[in-house]
Specification:
- The protein has a five-stranded antiparallel sheet, sandwiched between helices.
- The relative contact order is 0.19.
- Helix 5 crosses helix 6 and helix 6 packs across helix 7.
- Helix content is 42%, strand content 20%.
- The protein is elongated, with a radius of gyration of 20 Å.
- It is built from eight helices and eleven strands.
- By secondary structure, the chain is of the alpha+beta class.
Length: 259
């Protein structure tokens, strides 16, 4: 089976799977983005999360156990208010942690140059922790990530360790991060549209394509110009990491000049 046919089979299998995320659907803020990518023959999304504020209860000293058996006290993809957190904290029995997790997206790409286009768009849009992984079987995954997260413990063994005033302070920070996160998603969507339009034009003009392929660089301070997919889950990420079995392949780290 040739590479294009195999990629098409992978795409059909992935997009036909049931969404096993807690929510069971793609987050509202990334529906159009996921739809845009999955409509292109050279891409398909394997997992996504638009960004969220969450409060979870577990054992702060047992990370692996916490991932599997933690209790989610509060999860929202929108700005959060103090009263909701205080109410949720009353149900905590262990070590409750307040987190803001920014937008994350995994896209399988048909070829490395397709992933490079998305990577360039991601960096220009503010997702500076993005990277490309090439697996043993030739699977090329572009991960869109950023570093503006937040993680703060609030209680220990069910006892609140901070004041309500401090919780309010943390939520102001988390909500600001959520707003910035939304702006970056919108920027990513707009830049992606423009990049895909240029790619389409270059296919019609071979000389333009040659020029575009030879100029894949990230310049400092460069100005950036209903869906079928999946939400992110712990299971999605584990499957993504293990799908090439013993050999994780090559991790291609491409950073901007001022990283």
């Amino acid at each position: 089976m040739d590479r294009s046919a195999e990629f098409g089979r992978w795409k059909a299998q992935c997009l036909s799977k049931v969404d096993l995320s807690r929510k069971g659907s793609v987050d509202e803020d990334v529906v159009e983005l996921v739809q845009l990518l999955n409509a292109r023959e050279q891409f398909f999304t394997t997992s996504s999360c638009s960004g969220r504020i969450l409060l979870r209860d577990g054992d702060i000293n047992s990370f692996e156990v916490q991932k599997q058996n933690c209790c989610w006290l509060l999860v929202t993809h929108k700005p959060c208010v103090k009263d909701d957190v205080i109410r949720a904290l009353k149900k905590a029995n262990g070590d409750a942690i307040l987190k803001f997790e920014p937008f994350v997206l995994h896209v399988q790409c048909r070829q490395l140059q397709d992933a490079q286009i998305l990577h360039s768009v991601a960096i220009d849009s503010g997702f500076r922790n993005s990277g490309i992984t090439v697996g043993k079987r030739g699977k090329t995954i572009l991960a869109v990530r950023s570093t503006h997260g937040l993680e703060v413990p609030l209680s220990h063994k069910g006892k609140l360790m901070v004041t309500e005033e401090y919780i309010d302070f943390l939520l102001n920070i988390a909500n600001q991060k959520m707003e910035e996160n939304k702006k970056r998603i919108e920027r990513f969507y707009n830049c992606l549209q423009h990049a895909l339009e240029r790619e389409t034009d270059s296919k019609s003009h071979p000389k333009m394509k040659e020029k575009n392929n030879s100029s894949y660089t990230h310049k400092k301070n460069r100005s950036p110009e209903k869906a079928h997919g999946k939400s992110i889950t712990e299971e999605n990420v584990k499957e993504l990491e293990n799908e090439d079995d013993d050999d994780p392949g090559i991790i291609v780290n491409i950073f901007p000049d001022d990283y």
